[in-house]
Specification:
With 135 residues, the chain is mainly α. 73% of the residues lie in helices and 0% in strands. The protein has 2 domains: 62 residues; 36 residues.
């Protein structure tokens, strides 16, 4: 018998809620232990031992609830495509900057700027049109 999406979602929300409670208790108790250690300081910092041990348990609880961050999409086909696009954009940007640094733009007329703005608006409208509108 398969569980319904509602039950799966409910189970997942409860798991997240449990982790948040666990982390809140950890934070409060470790803060209290640190306060006690500092208030009664005898030369040894001992609160770090329970902090590290319980911190490992918190980390394991986190991985159990949320998984390893980025592991589902890490090195997947989608990740590879995104990285390729990012690298291509970087190269295109660098080429554009190189090209712009080599060419000094001539002084422009204010009317030309307005025409360019109108052309941009036209391009936006052109994307909304379909080929059948021109027949």
């Amino acid at each position: 018998m398969s569980t319904s999406p509602y039950r799966k979602a409910r189970r997942r929300v409860r798991a997240k809620k449990g982790f948040y409670y666990h982390f809140a208790v950890y934070f409060c108790i470790i803060s209290f232990l640190a306060f006690v250690n500092v208030a009664d300081f005898d030369g040894e910092v001992w609160f770090v031992y329970p902090m590290m041990a319980w911190g490992i348990a918190i980390a394991m609880h986190y991985v159990g609830v949320f998984g390893i961050p980025g592991s589902k999409k890490l090195l997947s086909k989608e990740w590879e495509e995104r990285e390729m696009e990012r690298e291509l954009r970087k190269f295109e940007y660098l080429e554009q900057k190189k090209y712009e640094s080599e060419i000094v733009p001539p002084p422009y007329d204010q009317n030309e700027v307005n025409e360019e703005l109108e052309l941009k608006d036209f391009k936006k409208l052109r994307n909304e049109w379909e080929d059948t509108d021109f027949v």
